[in-house]
Amino acid sequence: MFSTRRMQGLYAAVLTAALALTGVSDGYGQSTGGSSQRSGNSQMEGAAAPSDFVTNAIIANLAAARSECGSYDRVYRIDCLRQRMLDIARRIPQGAAYAQARQIVGRAASQLGSIQSANADTRVKKQRSRRNARLREAKVYTAIKREKLNQAMQQASRVIDEATTQLLRAGENSEKRSAHYRKIAAAVGSTKVLLRSA
């Protein structure tokens, strides 16, 4: 028979080992990419219902992206938003609760990439990412040609509008998802402030 003290010690050791193996994160916010990012995503894979914890983390990540991208010259903002939205999509759980949100945000990032590629200015110095408390992976952003910037911004704004609409519609299919998807849609829509014409 184990003594109470020995049992408590055993439980503590098991708990410590479990926490070390799982790599608990704050809802996919703080990651340096690679294996740590995959570990973060795996924590909620297969989730059948949305949670305030995960939804709030997605919203916070979008707010962090908006704040970071807004600190750069306008020519870098589309590429910044593209890359950070792709980061965010990868952090959204793959389970049924957030599958559509993950897909919509990821598709928007891809569409922004097409706009970026069509209007990239390779003659201008690239912008290295500054500190982002939630999305820590270092990035390098490519500029848009200034003469094409307003047109590119308008196209990017339409991409964000479309993603916002898709998120709202996706939430209509489930009472459980509705409130969560509305919040995510609002957070995605808020990034349009980065895309205003001069």
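[next item in queue]
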Amino acid sequence: MKKLLSAVCVSLLGLTLGSVAHAQDKIVLKLGWVTSDAADDPYAMGARAFKEAIGPRSNGRIDVQFYPNRQLGDEIRLLEGIRFGTVDAGVIINSVVGQLEPSYQVHELPFVYATSEDAQRVFDGPIGAKMAGRLRDKNVIMLGTIEGGYRVMMNNMRPLTKPTDMHGIKWRVMQNPIFVDMFGLFGGNPIPMPIGETFIAVQQGTVGGIDIAAPFIEPNKWHEVFKYVSNTNHTYSAAHILVSRRAFDRMPKDLQEAMIDAGRIATKKQREEYTKLVAVTYDSLRAKGMIVNEVPDVDAWRTTVAPLYDKFRSTVGPDIMDEVLAAAKAK
């Protein structure tokens, strides 16, 4: 009997060791985000580009698995998980990252970037590296900043051409103090809410309007619950490909380098795909019955929210604020 038990134990030990060895051959990286996994969803585009890039650069040793549609939680929980090492990686909007590292809130200021190229120059340059270093100190590794585009406003009451048109509408806003204050200054009634709870809130009448980047409208079915799209372009919306420092530090150096390289390549590819997507977005929305309008006097909107720059200067940090404003204007 003892010989039989010994044989069983040895056999089980062999199976266990074999399983561990096999697991060590390939690192599974769970990557989450809160929007859909549709082919034309900008976050999904970034996730797929990263997976495609990391495969050959890691010689198949990193297996990226997708968890879209809030499967790993909303963005605040997702970022907390990345920070504490309970979540491997995520594609997370800048406004949420700014709650962890306040310097990132500078990107949320209204009308700070005249073009996407201005924003990308900041993200990809020394200022972006400086901010990424601060994020790394909080156990989050920045792999790249993908395109989220300029945010537009949707509602069911009227087209928006001037800030006073926002009066009387309850607006879902991101859980970010700049957005709460911004929409208050515009004259709306801001209600901070996770994006995952918003669709039902619109259907129930809890909120009557939201702001979002236009290419997210169709893949996430917003055209089914809203009528008007106004191209206010009030904020440039970026998202970041992030990985837990805990997961990153456990990788051998060659795989760390592969992750960084894949992040750079995925960022470039997603931005290119996003530009093509924007070119066809509005025609597609009109074909689905949405009414799209331009904003004739952007200065009226810009002047209304100008006080936010002084109010959030100390939160962002005077050094970052000045550097970003100078870089955004440099051509």
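[queue empty]
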